[in-house]
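Example complex used in Figure S2.
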Amino acid sequence: MAKTYNEINEKIASGKAVVLTAEEVIDYVERKGVAAAAKEVDVVTTATFGPMCSSGCFLNFGHSAPKIRISEAWISDVPVYCGIAAVDVYLGATQLRHNDPANMYFPGEFRYGGGHVIEELVAGKKLQLFALSYGTDDYPRREVRTMFDINDLNQAIMTNPRNCYQNYNVAVNSSGKRIYTYLGILEPNMKNMTYCSAGQLSPLLNDPLYKTIGVGTSVWLAGSRGLVYAEGTQHCSAVERGANDVPVEGAGTLALTGNMKEMIPEFVRGVSLPGYGVSLALGVGIPIPVLNEEILRYTTVRDRDIIGCAIDYSHDYPEKTCKVLARYSYEELRSGQVELHGKKVAVSAMSSYHKALKIAELLKSEIQRGDFMLSEPSRLLPLNQSMTGLTITGGAK
Amino acid sequence: MTSCKKAYLHFPKEMTDKPFIGNLIKEFDLTINIFRAKVTPGEGGYLSIEIVGDDEQIQNGFTYLKQNQVEIHSGDVGLIWRKEECTHCTNCTVHCPTGALHIADWDTRRVEFDESKCIECLACLKNCPFHVCSSIF
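Predicted assembly (534 residues):
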């Protein structure tokens, strides 16, 4: 029996919705069967927590007297983008602090950058704005130096072009020297391996063909009522998928937005990756409405049925050879050790299953309390979309 | 009774030229395993150690150090793991050679720090993306 978004929202509003996390639903459906469970369960909560580099925020500072049309600005010495209206700026998660030596003394430490500024903003800390302008008739001020916190801003809108990668590479290093990557430090001779996915809890792994998660879907973005505003950048749905429709590589992505003033600091964390750079780790929860049996069946995906591809980050990843060294299920990866070319390799994660579980539970209780309503997507995400590479043609003649 | 105790010591700048560790071994019959030290003449410094020996002799050794203005942080290692800031990503666990940082609950992937296993190699300092670990010195 099919349900509609309206019917589910009415149950949520009356406090009668049956909500399970994407972990709980697995055993529940196994016990009850799909048909019976689809009638009983209204919503499945999915979640993830991990570094998501394509994140950032639009900030509006309000106008000083006299006014300034900011042309260059730094927040706590981290440059922000000013090529928009007078006192609007965009701060990106991977922006380095001014004068950060980067990898000049390899490996760079990257102790502070855009992601850390965003963490401190959400945590309510006072930060310094330094802004310059060339001065105009209507905006005569040429310089601002002031302290502010998030409450002083008119808007602080997190706007992330790419979050929640459906699946992700598993990184390993077959070379003879240590390498520094966005998946952490990889010791030589395949000593360790890292992955970055919440597996069976992860939003797009529970809705592999984007039947409910689309443009306009309400999401829990670090505690705020956010939404999917577009397909994410590099959304590439036309990839190899298993019999359960779950992709074995990156595949779908989501562009998310949310009000930073509503966010919980625990789920907005600056990231330092030695030798690589800075980033931002975010917690995202997405509710999946159980509209029918098919949608419910997708949410019962288990770690053992989700495959990740091990890629050599010392050669195959940077050179884009597309070579896969081995495939593992997330159950194998989460066991902490796998075998590669006859050798035992220690495995760890860059994403936090612990925090993802906490988010799935938090979202579940918000829905049970009637505090979080679902929204029907206004547009579905493209299902057969590929991705192109960059052809280098040289500059203008 | 024989015990094994971890401690880190702080030396005031006046005491940086005294052979305290040698004396602990010779005078108090203690076995000292030095994890890490940073002692600069004229500036003071720190020393992280594990002490094995008779309980009474350890106490006598501590009394001797205190009489010489050495600050003793008994039972502590010179490494701080800020539990409330840990995101439990588990990235540190494969880099920690002794299992001090480990997954305490495999169902919820909760990370814990077992101070008694820490040898202060500081691998966690550079591997934690969230700067959860820091060193006293």
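The two ends of chain A are 64 Å apart (CA to CA). The helical segments of chain A are 5-13, 24-32, 34-40, 114-122, 203-206, 293-299, 330-334, 353-368.
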